Amino acid sequence: MTVTLPAWCTLIRADNPSPMTLEGTNTYVMRAPGAAAAVVVDPGPLDEQHLQAVAALGPVELILLTHGHPDHAEGAHLLREMTSAPIAAADARLTVAADPLRDGQRIQGAGGLRLRVVTTPGHTSDSVSFSVEDDVPALLTGDTILGRGTTVVAHPDGRLGPYLDSLTRIRDLPQRPVLLLPGHGPVGPDAAAVASDYLAHREQRLAQVRAARAAGAASARDVVRVVYADVDPVLWAAAELSVRAQLDYLDQPQPPPSP
Questions:
Q1: What is the pLDDT of residue 234?
Q2: Which of 50, 62, 89, 190 is the most exposed place for a label (fewest CB within 10 A)?
């Protein structure tokens, strides 16, 4: 299904395709009609040609990061050199001339848009999403939700419990539908619906991991061989990180089910 981007959003895809980044990293340049300057979300890798294309849509007044992985954040400092824009992220180590982002924060100077921070840890501890509260509401999810397939929860920084909480938060967004603007892959019509599908998938995987353990799988790699047998082995290293996060989650005391 092809989804049309709102008038305030331009997607520039970095030329860094891979099994992990799909077609490449999605960089979003956002500016409301009539606004003097734009906000950039996830400049992407350190690719000067890509960053020049992003800067050409300026002036840029703010650079936002969904999280610190290099395929999203490595180019931020060079883009700042090109535009003089501050860099804002949840992780204080990534911010330049800005304060760390906080949950629920309304971002001033955001391309003339009503932009709000939604903390969505799990893929990484510093993952955030950005809610655009416009006539066409949208959620920029970074790697928390992808445009195709599922994301890696890479232990130990990635943790499954917080990730499931983040998916639940997106699933229960009060406004529906909310356009999905993911960090990789195609744009989608309904972020909450994808979050619901992700939650169902995670429950299926957890059941498979429990079954593999019961059948004698002793290590994370043993579980990968059983549970991810139908997945290209080139992705097994990433799958093993997710399995470690699943095993860590299963080994934690679980709260009793709600009555």
A1: 84
A2: 190
Q: How far apart are CA 255 and CA 159, in angstroms?
A: 16
Pick the closest to residue 76 from 107, 120, 41 (CA basis): 41
DSSP E strands: which ranges in 107-187?
115-119, 128-132, 138-142, 179-182
**Identity of the amino acid at 182:** P
pLDDT at 250: 92
**Residues 46-82: b if buried by 16+ CB within 10 A, e if exposed:** bbeebbebbbeebebbbbbbbbbbebbbbbbbbbbeb
Third-level CATH fold of 9-192: Metallo-beta-lactamase; Chain A (3.60.15)
Question: What's this model's pTM, rounded to 2 decimal places?
Answer: 0.93
Question: 111-152: per-residue pLDDT in tens?
Answer: 999 999 999 999 999 999 999 998 889 999 999 999 999 999
Q: How far apart are CA 214 and CA 236, in angstroms?
A: 21
